[in-house]
Amino acid sequence: MQRLIITAPRRAEFEDVDAPPCPSDGLLVRARVTAISTGTELRVYRLVPVDAAGRFLHANAPLELPAENGYSMVGEVVEVGDAVTGFAVGNRVFAPATHRAIAATPAHLAVKLPAEAPDEQAVFLSILEVAHLALRKGSPAPGENLAIVGQGVIGLAALAYGVAYGFRTVAIDTDEHRLAIARQLGADLALSPVEPHFHEQVRDFCNGDGADLVIEAASVWPAIQTSMEIAANRGRVVVVARHTDQPTFSPVGDPFLQKEIALLVSYGHPPDGHRWDRRRSFALTLAKGRLNIAPMITHRFLWHELPQVYQRLDQGERDLVGIVLDWRNA
């Protein structure tokens, strides 16, 4: 079977390996489609570590080559471990797996999919949940204004949740193509931070105040600065993007200190048993098909085109947003 590996900075290739054994507490899943988490996967493609010492590729995962990439798969169960209940061969599931033809996944991380959830939307479940967690971390109240800075897959996902939950939404990005997608998703206001009177437009939309909650999903420190500038006094800013650059401003200097902004970060589901643990949060995302993400799926490729897709992302093609890879002929 084929799997995608990163063998050097900006070098991705496929290798033919044996299918993994099925763990007793897990499943073997044959891929139908995988999705690209553009921010995380591009960072891995470039081999940019998450820590200053350069030791880790992901939190608690050493930077070692070759490295697999990705964490989003929809496929069919082809084998069930001896200790597993609740799954059967032939089930269609989401699995947080890398780009490969067959994946072994712990059963407790697999999600059985309802018939009404299309492959190409369900494959974004983990990416959607990153945004879902950020929104919950900000604890928006009914009637509050929600701004999302950065309209990549995470930012657009946060916007989709905001629209589904009925918040007044502002989508912010420098790219007009991504702002157009935000408008299709239902953003009440979509604009660029370089537009004339940007801050005034946001304040006017927010009834003369700033945004009650801002989600920063752009992965650069200037986006955090923009988020803090447009936040209301005593507003909240949730940083969901991973940052590897350094700030050029003080988040506790003037004028931010006197705004008494709550600066929060979001990472990972709460422990099992929490009201919104992983199982319950995923179930809500899948419920009744209320979450509209179809406009953010912009490109579809065959699995073997993935190295070329990474090259295009690395070269800055910002029209590549929601990307689905078809593995059904692998």
Secondary structure elements and pairings:
Layout lengths: L1 E7 L2 E6 L9 E11 L1 H8 L10 E3 L2 E2 L4 E2 L4 E8 L11 E4 L6 E5 L4 E2 L6 H4 L2 H14 L6 E5 L3 H12 L3 E5 L3 H10 L3 E3 L6 H8 L5 E6 L4 H10 E9 L22 E4 L12 H9 L10 E6 L3 H9 L7 E5 L4
Parallel strand pairs: 11-12, 11-14, 12-13, 14-15, 15-16, 17-18
Antiparallel strand pairs: 1-2, 1-6, 3-7, 3-9, 3-18, 4-5, 7-8, 8-10
Helix pairs in contact: 3-4
How would you describe this structure to a colleague?
It is a single chain. With about 325 residues, this protein is an alpha/beta fold. The protein has 2 domains: about 1-125 and about 295-325, Quinone Oxidoreductase, Chain A, domain 1 (Alpha-Beta Complex); about 125-265, Rossmann fold. Helix content is about 25%, strand content about 30%. The chain has helices spanning about 40-45, 120, 125-140, 155-165, 175-185, 200-205, 220-230, 280-285, 305-315, and strands at about 1-10, 10-15, 25-35, 55-60, 60, 65-70, 75-80, 90-95, 100-105, 110, 145-150, 170, 190, 210-215, 230-240, 260-265, 295-300, 320-325. Strands 3, 7, 8, 9, 10, 17 and 18 form a 7-stranded mixed sheet that branches. Helix 3 crosses helix 4. The radius of gyration is 20 Å and the shape is globular. The model has no long low-confidence stretch (mean pLDDT about 95).
CATH homologous superfamily (4th level) name of the largest domain: Medium-chain alcohol dehydrogenases, catalytic domain
CATH topology of the largest domain: Quinone Oxidoreductase, Chain A, domain 1
Tell me the distance between the termini.
8 Å
Low-confidence stretches: none
SSE string, helices as H and strands as E: EEEHEEEEEEEHHEHEHEHEHEEHEHE
CATH architecture of the largest domain: Alpha-Beta Complex
Q: Please give the largest β-sheet.
A: 7 strands, mixed
Please bin the fraction of helical residues. 25-40%
